[in-house]
Amino acid sequence: VVTRGTGGQKLAMPSLLPTGLWKQSGRWKGAGEEVFRLSDRKGEAFLLAPTHEEVVTDLVAHTVRSYRALPLRLYQIGPPAQ
């Protein structure tokens, strides 16, 4: 979704993240017991997303191929509390 006033793109972030990006960034080893971890029925590991830095970094790394794609304005607004 492109916002007309700022030219930004609104992102909807996942609540569950595969552990791969966290392992790649090195934060998986440092994540303590306060991070909620779970496995799906295939045994793949996931965590309940406390932050989304890894997801945004991965998105930008796979989207921006040239300086011409910059500046890139992204924003996230969390879902309303139920």
Provide mean pLDDT, rounded: 85
Number of extended strands = 5
Rg (C-alpha, Å): 15 Å
**Helical percentage:** 25-40%
Strand content range: 15-25%
The largest beta-sheet arranges its strands as: 2-4-3
N-C termini distance:
23 Å
Would you identify the regions where 5 or more consecutive residues have pLDDT less than 50?
none
How many strands, which pairing sense, and closed or not: the largest β-sheet?
3 strands, antiparallel
Q: Tally the helices: what do you get?
A: 3
User: Overall 3D geometry?
Assistant: elongated
Order of helices and strands: EEHHEEHE
Structural class based on helices, strands and sheet pairing: alpha+beta
Descriptive tags:
single chain; 82 residues; alpha+beta; 3-stranded antiparallel beta sheet; elongated
How does this model look, in words?
- It is a single chain.
- The protein has 82 residues and is of the alpha+beta class.
- The chain has helices spanning 20-25, 27-30, 53-63; strands at residues 9-10, 16-18, 37-39, 45-48, 74-75.
- A hairpin with a 5-residue loop joins β3 (37-39) and β4 (45-48).
- 26% of the residues lie in helices and 17% in strands.
- The model has no long low-confidence stretch (mean pLDDT 85).
Task: Spell out the blueprint of helices and strands.
Elements: E1 9-10, E2 16-18, H1 20-25, H2 27-30, E3 37-39, E4 45-48, H3 53-63, E5 74-75
Parallel strand pairs: 1-5
Antiparallel strand pairs: 2-4, 3-4
